[in-house]
Each structure stands twice: as structure tokens, then as C-alpha cells.
Amino acid sequence: MSLHGNDRRDEPSMGSAGANGTVAAASLRLRLNPNKEHKPEGYEDMELDFSPNIFSSLERYLPPSMLNVARVDKAKFMRDILLKYLPLGERNRAQKHKEYRQKIIANYQPLHRELYSVNPATFFVPSFLKAINDNTEQSFRSIMSEPAPGIFVFDIFQPDFCELLLSEIENFEKWVTETKFRIMRPNTMNKYGAVLDDFGLETMLDKLMEGFIRPLSKVFFAEVGGSTLDSHHGFVVEYGKDRDVDLGFHVDDSEVTLNVCLGKQFSGGELFFRGVRCEKHVNTGSHSEEIFDYCHVPGRAVLHRGRHRHGARATTSGHRVNLLLWCRSLSNDFVRLLHTKLFWYTHYSVFREMKRYQKDFSGWCGECNREKKERQRTTIAATRLVSLYVIRMFRACA
Fold first, then answer.
1. Regarding beta strands 256-263 and 229-240, do their DSSP bridges make them parallel or antiparallel, or are they unpaired?
2. How far lies 17's CA from each of 21, 121, 248, in Å?
């Protein structure tokens, strides 16, 4: 299939029709610009190599002749495009992870099946649910505080939901111990905790991101892909005695991060934030206005950019469990990367890939913004000096 664009970017090359009346996929290419009027189908019930949300997101870029074909044909066409840009080593790794996840789901018996699909009335506190249903910036701000720029705090989960999820996590860990099953940990920094997607909660967390987090991030984090979140990494981390104690200074592998304390009884464990940075400036110093510490409260959420540098202080007593949802964006730039044949791999955000080629992130990176302001200040000062010199020369000549 051709992914090269030309002057007629939204017109597909036509091929011969197959037996089912569809156009041969090999002769088609994606649109460069999305069809915003097209309503994508859902792919949650299909067995796919990638997140169903990615297929729904990518469907808007299909050529017009593909929009009305059978859903299975659209899924195959998009899958072929995605796999084309996935190196063999990554394909094998993705396949092994898929088999690993299927083995868990086939053998693990959930304790609370009601957790595996979103039930808004029992999951969320009424104030959060009302704000999401109203779906306005005013309604969102009415339930939030913004104690530091770009850090939003709000109540989200009901206590009963937190208790059920904690109970499910304990049940899963008990099963892992009894079966001596080796599980993957959430990331390279946490030695304890579990990936919730791996034991069946992926669909629920997809719905959480799509229906309840994306509306917020569309308003508050649009400049980093917040309006196009379509994949996630969902996990829990555990701190306390015989578990992780603290978490070092880092940035997340996400565009937007949701961090919710589930419980239990604990002291310490405060989050500390130190400013938003692009890759170039990630190790630069912090300024006084960027320093913020946050104390966890069960059921309460913190929403922030993935590039907001942070860490967690030691949990000095008790047991703290937090739900983390790293929300990622495919974004419109993915299709542009496909058209220019740049490297991409599964669930890797194009926003983060594009940062290799961009130099100015002054819209959200604190250090880029300071450098831009300094350049502007220098330019204005130089212009004033030139103006004064011209005026003096004019007066001298007069």
C-alpha cells in the first residue's frame, strides 16, 4: 500500500474490487486529514493487536471508499498499516505479551466482576459525575482545585469502589502467589504493584479514559494531545513495609496522568512536583513557583501532564495503594508520520516521537517558555537601542 501523499491528499488510489465488493487494500492509503463528520465504529468486542481506541481513532483517516465496508475489513486494513511500522522485534514482543495476558485471563477468576465494566453510579462520586455530564469547563472547575499550575485535584471514586478494587487487587496477588505465576510489574521504577490491564481490566480502564478523563484533558491539556487520548497503561503501585518505600524524581511515559489514591491507612508518601519540561530541559533546575507538594487522600485524584516532573516521598507507616492511568495520544501527527514513513511502534505516543524534531515547546515546557521570553526581552531591548541610536543620529543631523 502507498502511504505517500501528493497534491490530492484526500483522494485514494483506486484498485480492483474484491469478491466482497471492497477495494483492494494494497492500493489504498490513509487520508492526511481526518473526516471529522464520520462517526467511527467501536472495536472493543474484537480480538485485536492494538487498543480498540486506536482503531476508532484511526478510522477517521480511512479513504472514503473504506468507510462503509464491513468493520472486519476496516480493522484488517488498519492493522496492516500499524504492523507495517512495527519492527519485527517489537512485533514478537507484542505477541508474547498478548499470549501472557490471555493466559492470565483464561485462568484467573475475578472476585468482583462488577468492576470489569464501568458503572458510573457506583464508581464515581455524584459531584464528579454531574460535572462530566454537564461537560463544560465551568462544571469541571467547580469540582476541582488547581493548587499549582497544571495540577488538578478532585474527588472521583466512591469509597465502596475503592474498597472493591483493593479487594480485587489482593485477590489477584493471592492467585499469583498460589499459582507461582510470574507477573510483570508496572514499570522499571516500581518493584511492587500490578498492571490492571493484564488481568482483565483493560476495557474498563479504556472506558474510564475515554468517557471521563478525556473530557477533562481536552479542556486542560489540549496542547499535549489531551483531546485525542486513545490508549493507556493502567496499573496500581503499593508503598509501605515490605513494599516500595518511595519513588524517585521522574516524568511519566504519558501525555496525561491520572493518579488516584485508593487507600489504605498510611502516613507520608507525599507527591512532590518540580515543573513541566521537554526532553531537552528535563534535568534543568526548578524555580520557586514550580515547587509543589501534595498529600494523598483516598478517593481523590491528581491529574497532570506526563512531562510534569515529580516523585513520591517515603511512606513512613501503613500501606498506600494508588491507581495510575497513563493516558496516551495517537494524535493527528501519527498519520503525518505514516505519510512520511517515520518510525512508530505500538502504543508509543506520536507527540513524544515528534519532540525529536521540534525545538520549541514554550506552550507547556517551563524552561522553553523562559528561554522564549528571554529571547523576546533581548530582541525588544536591542530594538529600543537601535531606535535610540537612530533618533540621536537624526537629531545630530538636524
1. unpaired
2. 5, 48, 56
Task: Assess whether pLDDT exceeds 70 at residue 345.
Answer: no
Contacts of 172 (CB under 8 A, 6+ apart): 108, 194, 199
Q: Minimal CA–CA distance to 216: which of 325, 141, 147, 273?
A: 141
Answer yes or no: are the C-beta atoms of 144 and 138 closer than 8 Å.
Answer: no
Q: What range defines the domain where residue 11 resides?
A: 1-84
CB within 8 Å of 392: residues ≥ 6 apart = none
CA–CA separation, 319 vs 266, rounded Å? 5
d(CA 312, CA 249): 8
Q: What is the mean pLDDT of residues 165-170?
A: 96
The answer to whether position 372 is within a domain reads: no
Cα 284 from Cα 275, distance rounded (Å): 10
Please report, for residues 10, 185, 344, the alpha-carbon distance to residue 29 in angstroms, rounded to integers and kept in the order given: 9, 38, 17
* pTM for the structure as a whole: 0.75
- Is the Cβ–Cβ distance between 262 and 322 less than 8 Å? yes
Q: Torsion angle, CA of 337/280/237/288, rounded to 10 degrees?
A: -140
Res 350 pLDDT > 90? no
Q: Are 325 and 213 in contact (CB under 8 A)?
A: yes
Looking at residue 119, its pLDDT comes to 95
Cis peptide bond prior to 76, omega within 30° of 0: no
- The answer to whether residues 134 and 230 touch, using CB atoms and an 8 Å cutoff, is no
Which grid cell is 249? 524524581
Number of domains in the chain: 2
Do residues 11 and 116 share a domain?
no
Residue 241, beta-bridge partner list: none
Distance, CA of 224 to CA of 337 (rounded, Å): 17
**Shared domain check, 157 and 17:** no
Q: Are 33 and 85 in contact (CB under 8 A)?
A: no
Are the beta carbons of 152 and 145 closer than 8 angstroms?
yes
Is 70 exceeded by the pLDDT of residue 225? yes
**Residue scoring higher pLDDT (273 or 50):** 273
Alpha carbon distance 220, 256 (integer Å): 10
What residue ranges in 59-187 does DSSP mark as E strands? 145-148, 151-155
Return the pLDDT at 368: 83
Q: Does 156 reside within a domain?
A: yes
